[in-house]
Amino acid sequence: MFVDDCSRFTWIYPLHFKSEVYEKLLEFKAYAENQFHTSLKILRTDGGTEFVNKKVASLFFSHGIIYQASCPYTQAQNGVAERKHRHITETAITLLHQSSLPLKYWFDAVATAIFLINRIPSSVLSNQSPFQILFKRLPDFSFFKVFGCQCFPWLKPYTTHKLQPKSLSCVFLGYHPTVKGYRCLDPISGKLFVSQNVILNESCFPFASSNLSSSSPPLF
Q1: Model pTM?
Q2: Which of 2, 62, 79, 197 is deepest in the core (most CB within 10 A)?
Q3: pLDDT tens digits for 186-204?
């Protein structure tokens, strides 16, 4: 789960159905091989049926990919993935809790957690970040902002007439995956804006209000 320096793309693929695993595997394989001039050699999973089927097996066989599965109910055999999954989950829960965002914004919190984890130095990597290992340079820490805080994006590009406000009080929902911009949610209308020009109040959390937390419209 690294982030590409050029596209800012985060390697996270949300699934509505397990049947989508095959297509997402193809996307991941193509992206990794094209961007990093490497090839997928081994894939280890918990043995879920979404991976153990003829379609996926054919993909592995035709590309010489070794598939490994842990024994049933033996998480220790897939310890690296299990620990990272727990790391991401607990970071996302922390982001949601400290910002008072409702659970329906879990995906935004998870994407932000991955963005941060990929750039934070790790003792496992000799105090380097995954980003630094991959791209041989330090990430831009000045781009980090407090998840769920109040923000005021420049909205002129979104206005349709001159009397509309040029900014609104919004909520910072993380980083856009393909452009260098912040994702800003209008908690009243539910509209999502993307802007590089944003003023952030990192000590104020709009969703700390019980009214917003209980009645805000869904993001998608």
Answers
A1: 0.84
A2: 2
A3: 999 999 999 999 999 999 9
